[in-house]
Structures
1.
Amino acid sequence: QSALTQPASVSGSPGQSITISCTGTSSDVGGYNYVSWYQQLPGKAPKFMIYDVSERPSGVSNRFSGSKSGNTASLTISGLQAEDEADYYCTSYTGSSTFTVVFGGGTKLTVL
Amino acid sequence: EVQLVESGGGLVQPGGSLRLSCAASGFTFSYYSMNWVRQAPGKGLEWVSYISSSSRTIYYADSVKGRFTISRDNAKNSLYLQMNSLRDEDTAVYYCARVTWGRDQWPVDDWGQGTLVTVSS
């Protein structure tokens, strides 16, 4: 299974909105509504941000939202804040009958 | 508070073995499936292995199949990863991660702080 494709970097100014894309195939992102997103601050463990394409776990700011169109999922961060500067990873899961978990290569978000 | 604490990492020569442990607390460990995920230095995340709550179902990434063995001891609230025939490309921080409540395999919500495995001669 190949890694999902994410842009290496994105940037935005405080208060702006940015979107990170995550492109797979019909065998992963496009075939299942099991896309998740993780935020990783420098030197820290990943943090669970979005699951099932657009659901937010308890405690995650509503500035974070997810969506999907075809084989591409997206993470949007609105009202950008300095503490949002981190690496972001998407993942796709193919369900219990086949169990495949594939990660994106990660996107470095810089808050200007 | 959920806590996952990995240990057992270190420097090992190619072809060597290492056993990682993950001590869980703050939740009923026996109710949850678990995963190992790794991250090579400066690289992205890679799923390594999965084990169900009862140990009945186990999966491995192709890159470690036949060399790594995942296991758990629910009485000790612990998860393990036995790594044999280690290669340079296994060098990474290894995280244990808990499957989120209500799900069987993925996604994971809580992660440990990771333990570094370095394979080098």
2.
Amino acid sequence: AQTVTQSQPEMSVQEAETVTLSCTYDTSESDYYLFWYKQPPSRQMILVIRQEAYKQQNATENRFSVNFQKAAKSFSLKISDSQLGDAAMYFCAYRRRVEYGNKLVFGAGTILRVKS
Amino acid sequence: EAGVTQSPTHLIKTRGQQATLRCSPISGHTSVYWYQQALGLGLQFLLWYDEGEERNRGNFPPRFSGRQFPNYSSELNVNALELEDSALYLCASSHGLGRKPQHFGDGTRLSIL
């Protein structure tokens, strides 16, 4: 079974600075998807960024980027120029690459606090 | 485009009762997923429906069940409620194809007294 581990229960960052959230996973498969979701106090899970395991290039979305190390099974999220609106719980998630949908396996989450 | 909608926002029940949670997917999405987010337990996969069929089920007892309607909306039913069923229940939808990401609703907070 696949597992996802987020070893940082909580992180803090000063506004405008950069922070990196860690995620490791365990799988025996070679092709899969990885995601970072953000859950603000409003509760809705918002997709931040996704990575396809067969792509070597790290995904980027504006201020958000990932460091995907397939051999190490590591998938960290870097947030640049942090903003107050980035404060939320961040979840790393894994999904098998199959032709037809599948469940997400989530890590325990990291609370990100942004200081002004 | 309207997102995933869930109702009710909050549901309060007592032990032994039955709860019904509802989810409307994004227009065009055929797959609906249910997840439980309980305090201290993280997000756990419950059920996946696509084209009206149950496709996969997480490690939950049979008193957790659901269905998907012809319009792709879905219901999650929880029978014989227990205190530990108190959680945020999140619904997500996606296109049927595996490479499409899941989009989540705001959740239903189920509180068992």
